[in-house]
Amino acid sequence: MISGRTRTTLLSLIAGCLALVSTGASAEQSPAEDSHLKEVIAGDHRSADNTARDAYRHPYETLTFFGIKPDMTVVEIYPGRGWYTEILAPYLKDSGTFYAAQRPSDPSYAPGQRAVEAFDQKMKDAPELYGNVKRTTLTNEGDMELSEPADLVLTFRNTHSLMRRGAEDATFTAMFNALKPGGVLGVVQHRGDPDVEQDPKGGKGYVTEDYVIAIAEKAGFELAEKSEINANPKDTKDYDKGVWTLPPSLTLGDEDREKYMAIGESDRMTLKFVKPAS
């Protein structure tokens, strides 16, 4: 017959063993910490303005969600002024390959042209960081030259701009063709209200998840996973001036500035797509 004290001891031992098994299983399911990526994100080469936006853009969590590794071939589509390039280029410099697929030069579109020029200057100013960046161009027709297939293609807050130019289908097809079978497309985009009819031109910067998923699936991608890493429930998405009402653009200037700063940057979807292996 087992005494009460012995029974209690046995139950404690069993509970402890179960806890260890559970902890081990959780550890196996969690992605390994990427200390190299953390070091790059914390690097003093990044500007103060850019690091201040980490609170909204969550670069470590976003890139690890997409499965980035330092030996990959990675393509960033339309890198703008280089916010993510500031992280991706140093991270991939020693073991991987990084392509920056910039928009074609277009003096008629001043904001885009200024971004391209700022990006070019950033590359020139720090060759020790960006000397290995491979430059290419992605046209509205979907033409893009790479010397090798990619493991990972990334596009951050670009889908509405593609829609404005009627280039979304061609661009998503180009991203599909750029990837190896089994390769990943990572999409971050200002997330629209699913109860509001989608503007096919993306005029206010917001796009619904279903709309983005449909574009990607039309190109051949399969949705692998979603994340709420970049969600912002404070974003009401009903501004007359669109997403640019919020920081960092603050297109209304000082009008209701505190209100919009309190909301923060936009609510964003974070979608991981896969190119089928066969």
From TrEMBL:
SUPFAM superfamilies: S-adenosyl-L-methionine-dependent methyltransferases (SSF53335). The keyword Transmembrane helix does not apply. GO terms for biological process: methylation. InterPro entries: S-AdoMet-dep_MeTrfase_Alr7345, SAM-dependent_MTases_sf. Keywords: Methyltransferase, Signal, Transferase. GO terms for molecular function: methyltransferase activity. Residues 1-27 form the signal peptide. This is Methyltransferase. It comes from Methyloceanibacter stevinii.
